[in-house]
Amino acid sequence: MLIFCVTAIATSFTVLQHVDGAFSTDSAVSRPVSPLQWAWSDSICTGLQLANFWQDVARDADMGRCYIPKDVAKRFDVDVENLCENAAFKNMLAELVEDARNRLLAGRPLVNSVPKPARLDISLFIHGGLAILDAIEQGGYRVLSKRPRVSRGKKWRLFVRAVAAMLSNSLAR
Questions:
Q1: What's the CA gap between 39 and 36, in Å, rounded?
Q2: pLDDT, one tens digit for every residue, the chain (173 residues)
Q3: Among 19, 92, 129, 152, which is least packed by CB within 10 angstroms?
């Protein structure tokens, strides 16, 4: 889990660097990041990282990695050394997907708290993560037999919706 923590922190920092850079074209001038923005960013980045973990359970297992928390696996009586798509595994994954979804949704206020140039990227991070989680759910949590993916069409619709939402927010103000 240490690898996950380091990855999540690094990812969160990267998003905030992107946000910070959007405050000004002069890299020497930047707006401070509030504790709430840090929390929202951390929530988004953690949710996105978790979504990617749950999408890639089979790939990671093939490489000898498992990011499923041992306490959660134990509670569902899932043997992380011998994963199989039984009811216990699917129920466990449903809980893990819901946790990731809640984290992504909890970070949504970050979008409107940053300058406009950063909003589209952050919105796409959130909606891309949610789309991965939806694909896992729609696939019946069968991530071991088939890797969930977001189609090109779905990615395009996410992009168009995010741009439309930005434009409608701009016009409403």
A1: 5
A2: 233 333 333 444 444 444 444 444 444 334 557 889 989 999 999 999 999 999 999 999 999 999 999 999 999 999 999 999 999 999 999 999 999 999 999 999 998 888 888 888 898 899 999 999 999 999 999 999 999 988 899 889 988 988 887 777 654 44
A3: 152
Q: What is the CATH number of the domain that holds 92?
A: 1.10.600.10
pTM reported for the whole predicted model? 0.78
The DSSP annotation for 10-33 comes to HHHHHHHHHHHHTT-SSTT--PPP
Containing structural domain, residue 24: 2-172
Residue 131: which residues within 8 A CB-CB, separation 6 or more? Answer: 150, 154, 155, 158
How far apart CA 56 and CA 104 sit, in angstroms, is: 18
